[in-house]
């Protein structure tokens, strides 16, 4: 029995986002985890709700552009950026911001973000 998973496109256009928040702070050849992971979280946390949704291709699209613009080694963020068994924790928006802008609320689901990081890293290896 074959089961097909249909992935929807991504509601965020990652192609035209500004990746300098990562590329200016996460530099090789050392790729310091403190700098790279903080930069990654600053970039990705505002999109945690769509990145954690397994019904779309947002995470793979985002990682494709991060690697395109930063030319990072495969699996860099998945291997280096861990904050415990539940993955990365994204801070919540202040109430004043989230009350008026529900489209940009951050969902706290770090285990899915870690899963997506790992899956995308493995996909890029092959």
From TrEMBL:
Coiled-coil features, chain-numbered ranges: none
InterPro entries xrefs: LLG1-like, LORELEI-like
Residues covered by the GPI-anchored protein LLG1-like domain: 12-88
Pfam families (UniProt xref): LLG1
Protein name: GPI-anchored protein LLG1-like domain-containing protein
